[in-house]
Design brief:
The protein has 9 helices and 5 strands, in the order βαββαβααααααβα. With 229 residues, it is an alpha+beta fold.
């Protein structure tokens, strides 16, 4: 059966995960990170996708991005994936696949969950026990969003901009969001939504998406359908 095209309405943020095949490493040195970041920047611009937060781990990538066209994210990820695989195979004298099938993604309701997704993504190295502070991990957007490091990859989302009137104030308030770890149940909820391709938001948000696009974005009912006798 042919797979349905991804649900990707313009203007609605998406949490995206791309993993290495069988959890194998897809970044082996600093030059790999630099190459991937450069192509992500270029293809995001080409396909009109705004990237708000990101982290590059050894064997997977997290992005928080908003497409400005319906197929923007798909085109960006396909082009990025192909380009990087060619680079990686050439550099390490290998052949074959690098990524674990198609990337995973979920729609994110801005008002309810967007800043939680920012935190989830940038705290990934902390949850992996690679660092104790997200500021100590170089290959993420935390330094830009929280500390003001210049970036030609990041486009601040409206929810981020509403943290404060001035950049310094926004960064201070953003850092305050990281004063405690992300609640475990919330982290599991975010992880489940993106891995299952569901929507992350209120019941009303999910209902509106399903009604407008005629696509299920909530878990299917488990078990046999009930038959009334």
């Amino acid at each position: 059966m042919a797979r349905l095209p991804r649900l990707a309405p313009p203007g609605i943020p998406q949490h995206i995960i791309q993993r290495g095949n069988n959890r194998q490493a897809c970044f082996c040195c600093e030059n790999d990170f630099i190459a991937y970041a450069g192509w992500l920047r270029d293809y995001a611009a080409q396909y009109r996708v705004q990237v708000h937060a990101w982290v590059f781990m050894t064997n997977h990538v997290h992005l928080l991005a908003t497409p400005q066209s319906g197929q923007g994210v798909s085109k960006m990820m396909q082009s990025l994936g192909r380009m990087y695989v060619r680079y990686f195979n050439r550099e390490y004298r290998r052949s074959g696949t690098l990524w674990e099938g198609r990337y995973k993604s979920c729609l994110v309701q801005s008002e309810e969950y967007l800043l939680h997704c920012y935190r989830y993504i940038e705290l990934n190295p902390v949850r992996a026990r690679m660092v104790s502070d997200p500021a100590d991990y170089y290959w993420s957007s935390y330094a830009s969003n929280a500390l003001g490091r210049n970036s030609n990859l990041i486009t601040p989302h409206t929810e981020y901009l509403q943290l404060g009137r001035y950049p310094k104030q926004r960064r201070e308030r953003y850092r305050a969001l990281f004063s405690r770890h992300l609640d475990q149940s919330l982290a599991e909820h975010i992880s489940s939504a993106v891995n299952k391709g569901l929507a992350l938001g209120s019941d009303r948000f999910k209902e509106e998406i399903e009604k407008q696009y005629q696509r299920r974005v909530t878990p299917a009912v488990v078990g046999r359908p009930r038959v009334d006798l």
